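New to this. Help decode both lines:
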Amino acid sequence: MSYSVEEINSCTKKLIFTFESMDLTSEIQQKLNKKRQSISIKGFRKGKAPMEMVQQLYGREVESEALNTFVSTQLYTAINESDLKVVGEPIFGDIDYKSQEKMTFSVTLELFPDLELTDYTGYEFKQEKAEFSDEELEQVRADQLRAKAEMIVVDDDSVSLDKGHYAVMNFQGVKPDGERPENMHGKEFLLEIGSGQFIPGFEEGMLGMKKGENREVKVVFPEDYQAADLKGMDVLFEVDLLEIKVQKTPELTEELAKEFGFDSIEDFETKTRNNGVLEKQRASEDKVRQELVEKLVADNQFDVPNAMVFQQEDFLKQDLEKTLGQQGFNEEQSKDYFEKWSEDLRTKAEFQVRSGLILDHLSRKFEIEAGDEDLEEKIAETSEKTGIETEQLRKYYLSDDKIKSNMLFAIREEKTIKKILSQVSVVVEQ
Protein backbone atom coordinates (compact mmCIF):
# COMPACT_ATOMS: atom_id res chain seq x y z
CA MET A 1 0.00 0.00 0.00
CA SER A 2 1.06 3.54 -0.67
CA TYR A 3 -0.81 6.74 -0.10
CA SER A 4 -0.22 10.43 -0.42
CA VAL A 5 -1.72 13.25 1.61
CA GLU A 6 -3.19 16.36 0.03
CA GLU A 7 -3.94 19.26 2.37
CA ILE A 8 -7.21 21.00 1.54
CA ASN A 9 -6.99 23.31 4.56
CA SER A 10 -5.43 23.07 8.01
CA CYS A 11 -8.14 20.75 9.31
CA THR A 12 -9.12 18.91 6.11
CA LYS A 13 -6.90 16.39 4.35
CA LYS A 14 -7.37 14.10 1.38
CA LEU A 15 -5.66 10.70 1.44
CA ILE A 16 -5.05 9.18 -2.01
CA PHE A 17 -4.41 5.43 -1.98
CA THR A 18 -2.74 3.52 -4.80
CA PHE A 19 -2.39 -0.27 -5.15
CA GLU A 20 -0.41 -1.43 -8.17
CA SER A 21 -1.66 -5.00 -7.74
CA MET A 22 -5.10 -5.73 -6.36
CA ASP A 23 -6.30 -9.31 -5.82
CA LEU A 24 -9.22 -9.96 -3.48
CA THR A 25 -9.83 -13.49 -4.70
CA SER A 26 -9.08 -15.10 -1.35
CA GLU A 27 -11.26 -12.66 0.60
CA ILE A 28 -14.12 -13.03 -1.89
CA GLN A 29 -13.93 -16.82 -1.75
CA GLN A 30 -14.08 -16.78 2.03
CA LYS A 31 -17.13 -14.56 2.00
CA LEU A 32 -18.83 -16.71 -0.66
CA ASN A 33 -18.25 -19.83 1.46
CA LYS A 34 -19.72 -18.04 4.45
CA LYS A 35 -22.66 -16.84 2.37
CA ARG A 36 -23.25 -20.36 1.07
CA GLN A 37 -23.54 -21.72 4.61
CA SER A 38 -26.09 -19.11 5.63
CA ILE A 39 -28.53 -19.02 2.67
CA SER A 40 -31.26 -21.27 1.38
CA ILE A 41 -31.79 -21.67 -2.38
CA LYS A 42 -34.87 -23.41 -3.71
CA GLY A 43 -34.14 -27.04 -4.58
CA PHE A 44 -31.14 -27.33 -2.26
CA ARG A 45 -30.69 -27.87 1.43
CA LYS A 46 -29.25 -24.97 3.40
CA GLY A 47 -25.50 -24.77 2.80
CA LYS A 48 -25.57 -27.33 -0.08
CA ALA A 49 -26.16 -25.08 -3.10
CA PRO A 50 -23.47 -25.31 -5.83
CA MET A 51 -20.77 -22.69 -5.48
CA GLU A 52 -21.29 -21.67 -9.10
CA MET A 53 -24.89 -20.75 -8.30
CA VAL A 54 -23.90 -18.85 -5.17
CA GLN A 55 -21.29 -17.02 -7.25
CA GLN A 56 -23.88 -16.14 -9.88
CA LEU A 57 -26.44 -14.86 -7.34
CA TYR A 58 -24.20 -13.15 -4.80
CA GLY A 59 -20.86 -12.61 -6.53
CA ARG A 60 -21.24 -8.85 -7.05
CA GLU A 61 -22.59 -8.31 -3.55
CA VAL A 62 -19.78 -10.29 -1.93
CA GLU A 63 -17.12 -8.62 -4.03
CA SER A 64 -18.48 -5.22 -2.99
CA GLU A 65 -18.41 -6.26 0.66
CA ALA A 66 -14.84 -7.50 0.34
CA LEU A 67 -13.80 -4.28 -1.36
CA ASN A 68 -15.47 -2.14 1.35
CA THR A 69 -13.78 -4.17 4.08
CA PHE A 70 -10.40 -3.81 2.36
CA VAL A 71 -10.80 -0.08 1.81
CA SER A 72 -11.89 0.52 5.44
CA THR A 73 -9.00 -1.52 6.77
CA GLN A 74 -6.46 0.38 4.68
CA LEU A 75 -7.93 3.71 5.73
CA TYR A 76 -7.83 3.02 9.45
CA THR A 77 -4.33 1.60 9.17
CA ALA A 78 -3.23 4.86 7.54
CA ILE A 79 -5.04 6.91 10.21
CA ASN A 80 -3.24 5.04 12.98
CA GLU A 81 0.13 5.22 11.22
CA SER A 82 -0.17 8.97 10.71
CA ASP A 83 -1.75 9.59 14.15
CA LEU A 84 -4.59 11.59 12.62
CA LYS A 85 -7.24 12.95 15.01
CA VAL A 86 -10.32 12.49 12.84
CA VAL A 87 -13.59 14.38 13.32
CA GLY A 88 -16.83 13.04 11.83
CA GLU A 89 -17.20 10.42 9.12
CA PRO A 90 -14.69 9.94 6.28
CA ILE A 91 -15.88 10.78 2.78
CA PHE A 92 -14.81 8.22 0.17
CA GLY A 93 -14.44 9.15 -3.47
CA ASP A 94 -12.62 8.56 -6.76
CA ILE A 95 -12.68 4.76 -6.41
CA ASP A 96 -11.14 3.13 -9.49
CA TYR A 97 -11.12 -0.65 -9.20
CA LYS A 98 -10.93 -3.57 -11.59
CA SER A 99 -10.68 -7.09 -10.30
CA GLN A 100 -7.06 -8.29 -9.92
CA GLU A 101 -5.73 -5.05 -11.36
CA LYS A 102 -4.51 -1.68 -10.11
CA MET A 103 -6.79 0.14 -7.68
CA THR A 104 -6.95 3.75 -6.48
CA PHE A 105 -9.32 5.58 -4.13
CA SER A 106 -9.35 8.75 -2.06
CA VAL A 107 -10.73 9.65 1.35
CA THR A 108 -11.39 13.15 2.66
CA LEU A 109 -10.97 13.53 6.41
CA GLU A 110 -11.67 16.39 8.78
CA LEU A 111 -9.24 16.67 11.68
CA PHE A 112 -9.04 18.45 15.00
CA PRO A 113 -6.95 21.56 14.29
CA ASP A 114 -3.52 21.95 15.87
CA LEU A 115 -3.67 25.33 17.55
CA GLU A 116 -0.94 27.86 18.20
CA LEU A 117 -2.59 30.70 20.08
CA THR A 118 -1.43 34.30 20.12
CA ASP A 119 -0.19 35.77 23.42
CA TYR A 120 -3.17 36.97 25.44
CA THR A 121 -1.38 38.07 28.62
CA GLY A 122 -1.51 41.71 27.53
CA TYR A 123 -5.32 41.76 27.40
CA GLU A 124 -7.06 44.46 29.44
CA PHE A 125 -10.72 44.47 30.46
CA LYS A 126 -12.91 46.91 32.37
CA GLN A 127 -15.41 45.48 34.82
CA GLU A 128 -18.43 47.47 35.91
CA LYS A 129 -18.66 48.25 39.60
CA ALA A 130 -21.53 46.41 41.29
CA GLU A 131 -23.86 48.99 42.83
CA PHE A 132 -27.57 48.89 43.68
CA SER A 133 -29.30 52.27 43.60
CA ASP A 134 -32.25 53.58 45.62
CA GLU A 135 -34.28 53.64 42.41
CA GLU A 136 -33.61 49.94 41.86
CA LEU A 137 -34.62 49.18 45.44
CA GLU A 138 -37.90 51.02 44.87
CA GLN A 139 -38.47 49.04 41.68
CA VAL A 140 -38.06 45.76 43.56
CA ARG A 141 -40.41 47.06 46.26
CA ALA A 142 -42.99 47.95 43.60
CA ASP A 143 -42.63 44.56 41.92
CA GLN A 144 -43.16 42.79 45.24
CA LEU A 145 -46.21 44.89 46.10
CA ARG A 146 -47.72 44.43 42.67
CA ALA A 147 -48.61 40.87 43.67
CA LYS A 148 -50.80 42.37 46.42
CA ALA A 149 -52.36 45.01 44.17
CA GLU A 150 -56.12 45.18 43.68
CA MET A 151 -57.90 46.00 40.44
CA ILE A 152 -60.33 48.89 40.97
CA VAL A 153 -63.03 49.96 38.51
CA VAL A 154 -62.93 53.64 37.55
CA ASP A 155 -66.46 54.90 38.21
CA ASP A 156 -65.91 58.35 36.69
CA ASP A 157 -67.25 58.04 33.10
CA SER A 158 -65.35 61.16 32.06
CA VAL A 159 -61.97 59.45 32.53
CA SER A 160 -60.20 58.72 29.24
CA LEU A 161 -58.14 55.58 28.69
CA ASP A 162 -54.43 56.22 29.17
CA LYS A 163 -51.20 54.31 29.58
CA GLY A 164 -51.16 52.39 32.85
CA HIS A 165 -54.93 51.87 32.75
CA TYR A 166 -56.48 48.45 32.25
CA ALA A 167 -59.13 48.17 29.55
CA VAL A 168 -61.94 45.62 29.78
CA MET A 169 -63.10 45.24 26.18
CA ASN A 170 -64.73 43.22 23.45
CA PHE A 171 -62.91 43.20 20.13
CA GLN A 172 -63.14 41.64 16.67
CA GLY A 173 -60.54 41.74 13.92
CA VAL A 174 -61.66 42.16 10.31
CA LYS A 175 -59.35 41.24 7.41
CA PRO A 176 -59.27 43.29 4.16
CA ASP A 177 -61.52 40.70 2.48
CA GLY A 178 -64.12 41.03 5.23
CA GLU A 179 -63.25 37.78 7.01
CA ARG A 180 -63.79 37.94 10.78
CA PRO A 181 -61.52 35.20 12.19
CA GLU A 182 -62.43 33.57 15.48
CA ASN A 183 -58.84 33.88 16.68
CA MET A 184 -59.10 37.67 16.33
CA HIS A 185 -62.09 37.81 18.65
CA GLY A 186 -62.11 38.57 22.38
CA LYS A 187 -64.85 39.07 24.96
CA GLU A 188 -64.39 40.94 28.26
CA PHE A 189 -60.66 40.85 27.60
CA LEU A 190 -58.40 42.62 30.11
CA LEU A 191 -55.51 44.55 28.56
CA GLU A 192 -52.94 46.78 30.24
CA ILE A 193 -52.51 49.82 28.03
CA GLY A 194 -48.84 50.42 27.29
CA SER A 195 -47.80 46.84 28.00
CA GLY A 196 -47.15 46.07 24.31
CA GLN A 197 -49.13 42.86 24.63
CA PHE A 198 -51.07 43.40 21.41
CA ILE A 199 -50.06 44.14 17.80
CA PRO A 200 -48.08 47.42 17.51
CA GLY A 201 -50.49 50.33 17.15
CA PHE A 202 -53.46 48.61 18.79
CA GLU A 203 -53.01 49.99 22.31
CA GLU A 204 -52.04 53.41 20.95
CA GLY A 205 -55.22 53.41 18.89
CA MET A 206 -57.31 52.94 22.05
CA LEU A 207 -55.86 55.93 23.91
CA GLY A 208 -58.51 58.51 24.81
CA MET A 209 -61.44 56.08 24.69
CA LYS A 210 -64.10 56.34 27.39
CA LYS A 211 -66.23 53.72 29.03
CA GLY A 212 -68.99 52.55 26.65
CA GLU A 213 -67.24 53.94 23.56
CA ASN A 214 -66.92 51.95 20.31
CA ARG A 215 -63.93 52.56 18.04
CA GLU A 216 -62.30 51.10 14.94
CA VAL A 217 -58.55 50.62 15.36
CA LYS A 218 -56.44 50.02 12.26
CA VAL A 219 -53.17 48.10 12.61
CA VAL A 220 -50.56 46.58 10.31
CA PHE A 221 -49.19 43.21 11.34
CA PRO A 222 -45.35 43.12 11.46
CA GLU A 223 -43.44 41.58 8.56
CA ASP A 224 -41.82 39.14 10.99
CA TYR A 225 -45.13 38.06 12.56
CA GLN A 226 -45.14 34.34 13.41
CA ALA A 227 -48.30 33.58 11.41
CA ALA A 228 -47.23 33.68 7.75
CA ASP A 229 -50.73 34.55 6.44
CA LEU A 230 -50.85 37.75 8.55
CA LYS A 231 -47.39 39.18 7.81
CA GLY A 232 -47.72 42.80 6.70
CA MET A 233 -51.54 42.62 6.59
CA ASP A 234 -53.78 45.65 7.29
CA VAL A 235 -56.43 44.61 9.82
CA LEU A 236 -59.31 46.62 11.27
CA PHE A 237 -60.29 45.93 14.89
CA GLU A 238 -63.76 46.81 16.15
CA VAL A 239 -63.32 47.64 19.84
CA ASP A 240 -65.99 48.13 22.55
CA LEU A 241 -64.58 49.54 25.80
CA LEU A 242 -66.64 48.07 28.64
CA GLU A 243 -64.71 49.35 31.65
CA ILE A 244 -61.57 51.16 32.71
CA LYS A 245 -59.68 49.78 35.69
CA VAL A 246 -56.64 50.86 37.66
CA GLN A 247 -54.32 48.89 39.88
CA LYS A 248 -54.20 49.97 43.52
CA THR A 249 -50.91 48.98 45.14
CA PRO A 250 -50.59 48.87 48.96
CA GLU A 251 -47.76 50.40 50.98
CA LEU A 252 -45.05 48.10 52.33
CA THR A 253 -45.78 47.39 55.98
CA GLU A 254 -43.99 45.27 58.58
CA GLU A 255 -46.75 42.69 58.19
CA LEU A 256 -46.39 42.57 54.39
CA ALA A 257 -42.60 42.34 54.67
CA LYS A 258 -43.05 39.20 56.78
CA GLU A 259 -45.49 37.79 54.21
CA PHE A 260 -42.74 38.24 51.61
CA GLY A 261 -40.36 36.17 53.78
CA PHE A 262 -38.43 38.96 55.53
CA ASP A 263 -38.15 39.78 59.24
CA SER A 264 -38.98 43.44 58.76
CA ILE A 265 -38.94 46.33 56.28
CA GLU A 266 -35.31 46.95 57.22
CA ASP A 267 -34.50 43.29 56.59
CA PHE A 268 -36.23 43.51 53.20
CA GLU A 269 -34.15 46.53 52.19
CA THR A 270 -30.85 45.10 53.44
CA LYS A 271 -31.25 41.70 51.80
CA THR A 272 -32.62 43.20 48.58
CA ARG A 273 -29.60 45.51 48.30
CA ASN A 274 -27.16 42.70 49.06
CA ASN A 275 -28.79 40.34 46.56
CA GLY A 276 -28.89 43.10 43.97
CA VAL A 277 -25.18 43.79 44.39
CA LEU A 278 -24.40 40.04 44.13
CA GLU A 279 -26.45 39.73 40.93
CA LYS A 280 -24.73 42.74 39.39
CA GLN A 281 -21.36 41.36 40.44
CA ARG A 282 -22.13 38.08 38.68
CA ALA A 283 -23.42 39.95 35.62
CA SER A 284 -20.30 42.14 35.40
CA GLU A 285 -18.05 39.10 35.78
CA ASP A 286 -20.02 37.23 33.11
CA LYS A 287 -19.63 40.21 30.79
CA VAL A 288 -15.84 40.19 31.21
CA ARG A 289 -15.74 36.42 30.64
CA GLN A 290 -17.74 36.82 27.44
CA GLU A 291 -15.49 39.66 26.25
CA LEU A 292 -12.44 37.48 26.95
CA VAL A 293 -13.80 34.56 24.91
CA GLU A 294 -14.81 36.87 22.06
CA LYS A 295 -11.33 38.41 21.96
CA LEU A 296 -9.64 34.99 22.02
CA VAL A 297 -11.78 33.91 19.06
CA ALA A 298 -11.18 37.17 17.16
CA ASP A 299 -7.41 37.00 17.69
CA ASN A 300 -7.06 33.33 16.75
CA GLN A 301 -8.49 32.59 13.32
CA PHE A 302 -8.19 29.01 12.12
CA ASP A 303 -10.09 26.48 10.05
CA VAL A 304 -12.72 24.52 11.96
CA PRO A 305 -14.11 21.09 10.99
CA ASN A 306 -17.49 21.41 9.30
CA ALA A 307 -18.60 18.22 11.05
CA MET A 308 -18.25 19.91 14.44
CA VAL A 309 -20.07 23.03 13.28
CA PHE A 310 -22.94 20.98 11.79
CA GLN A 311 -23.23 18.99 15.00
CA GLN A 312 -23.33 22.12 17.15
CA GLU A 313 -25.82 23.77 14.80
CA ASP A 314 -28.06 20.72 15.07
CA PHE A 315 -27.84 20.90 18.87
CA LEU A 316 -28.83 24.59 18.81
CA LYS A 317 -31.78 23.81 16.52
CA GLN A 318 -33.04 21.04 18.78
CA ASP A 319 -32.78 23.29 21.82
CA LEU A 320 -34.51 26.16 20.01
CA GLU A 321 -37.27 23.87 18.73
CA LYS A 322 -38.17 23.02 22.32
CA THR A 323 -38.28 26.70 23.24
CA LEU A 324 -40.42 27.62 20.21
CA GLY A 325 -42.77 24.73 20.98
CA GLN A 326 -43.21 26.01 24.52
CA GLN A 327 -44.05 29.43 23.06
CA GLY A 328 -46.81 27.95 20.91
CA PHE A 329 -45.02 27.76 17.54
CA ASN A 330 -46.35 25.03 15.26
CA GLU A 331 -44.20 23.04 12.82
CA GLU A 332 -44.70 25.46 9.92
CA GLN A 333 -43.96 28.52 12.05
CA SER A 334 -40.81 26.90 13.43
CA LYS A 335 -39.69 26.10 9.87
CA ASP A 336 -40.16 29.75 8.85
CA TYR A 337 -38.20 30.87 11.90
CA PHE A 338 -35.26 28.59 11.12
CA GLU A 339 -35.20 29.69 7.48
CA LYS A 340 -35.06 33.34 8.55
CA TRP A 341 -32.38 32.87 11.20
CA SER A 342 -30.37 30.01 9.67
CA GLU A 343 -27.34 32.21 9.01
CA ASP A 344 -27.33 33.47 12.61
CA LEU A 345 -27.55 29.90 13.91
CA ARG A 346 -24.64 28.87 11.72
CA THR A 347 -22.56 31.85 12.93
CA LYS A 348 -23.37 31.08 16.56
CA ALA A 349 -22.52 27.39 16.10
CA GLU A 350 -19.17 28.22 14.49
CA PHE A 351 -18.33 30.67 17.28
CA GLN A 352 -19.11 28.06 19.92
CA VAL A 353 -16.96 25.45 18.17
CA ARG A 354 -14.04 27.89 17.84
CA SER A 355 -14.25 29.02 21.45
CA GLY A 356 -14.62 25.42 22.62
CA LEU A 357 -11.49 24.34 20.74
CA ILE A 358 -9.49 27.28 22.11
CA LEU A 359 -10.58 26.64 25.70
CA ASP A 360 -9.96 22.91 25.34
CA HIS A 361 -6.45 23.65 24.08
CA LEU A 362 -5.77 25.90 27.08
CA SER A 363 -7.36 23.44 29.51
CA ARG A 364 -4.86 20.80 28.37
CA LYS A 365 -2.03 23.30 28.51
CA PHE A 366 -2.93 24.20 32.12
CA GLU A 367 -3.75 20.54 32.92
CA ILE A 368 -7.20 21.55 34.14
CA GLU A 369 -9.76 18.84 34.78
CA ALA A 370 -13.21 18.70 36.36
CA GLY A 371 -14.36 15.92 38.66
CA ASP A 372 -17.04 14.94 41.16
CA GLU A 373 -15.81 17.45 43.74
CA ASP A 374 -16.20 20.27 41.21
CA LEU A 375 -19.68 19.02 40.35
CA GLU A 376 -20.71 19.09 44.02
CA GLU A 377 -19.48 22.68 44.31
CA LYS A 378 -21.47 23.64 41.20
CA ILE A 379 -24.59 21.96 42.59
CA ALA A 380 -24.26 23.91 45.86
CA GLU A 381 -23.67 27.17 43.96
CA THR A 382 -26.68 26.57 41.67
CA SER A 383 -28.85 25.71 44.65
CA GLU A 384 -27.91 28.96 46.35
CA LYS A 385 -28.69 30.98 43.21
CA THR A 386 -31.97 29.30 42.29
CA GLY A 387 -33.34 28.03 45.59
CA ILE A 388 -33.65 24.50 44.18
CA GLU A 389 -32.79 21.77 46.68
CA THR A 390 -29.28 20.36 46.27
CA GLU A 391 -30.57 16.79 46.29
CA GLN A 392 -32.96 17.57 43.43
CA LEU A 393 -30.10 19.09 41.40
CA ARG A 394 -27.79 16.19 42.23
CA LYS A 395 -30.41 13.69 41.12
CA TYR A 396 -30.79 15.55 37.81
CA TYR A 397 -27.06 15.82 37.01
CA LEU A 398 -26.40 12.19 37.96
CA SER A 399 -29.48 10.79 36.19
CA ASP A 400 -27.76 10.59 32.81
CA ASP A 401 -24.09 10.19 31.86
CA LYS A 402 -24.46 12.72 29.04
CA ILE A 403 -25.94 15.38 31.33
CA LYS A 404 -23.15 14.84 33.85
CA SER A 405 -20.49 14.88 31.12
CA ASN A 406 -21.82 18.14 29.64
CA MET A 407 -21.82 19.79 33.06
CA LEU A 408 -18.28 18.64 33.82
CA PHE A 409 -17.19 19.99 30.43
CA ALA A 410 -18.79 23.37 31.25
CA ILE A 411 -17.11 23.43 34.67
CA ARG A 412 -13.75 22.67 33.03
CA GLU A 413 -14.25 25.63 30.70
CA GLU A 414 -15.19 27.89 33.64
CA LYS A 415 -12.02 26.89 35.49
CA THR A 416 -9.97 27.53 32.36
CA ILE A 417 -11.47 31.00 31.87
CA LYS A 418 -10.78 31.79 35.53
CA LYS A 419 -7.15 30.75 35.01
CA ILE A 420 -6.82 32.97 31.90
CA LEU A 421 -8.36 35.94 33.73
CA SER A 422 -5.73 35.56 36.45
CA GLN A 423 -3.10 36.20 33.76
CA VAL A 424 -4.66 39.34 32.22
CA SER A 425 -5.60 42.78 33.53
CA VAL A 426 -9.16 43.29 34.83
CA VAL A 427 -9.85 46.80 36.23
CA VAL A 428 -13.04 47.50 38.18
CA GLU A 429 -14.48 50.86 37.12
CA GLN A 430 -15.06 53.33 39.94
User: Anything to note?
Assistant: The radius of gyration is 34 Å. The longest helix spans residues 331-366. The CA atoms of residues 257 and 267 lie 8 Å apart.
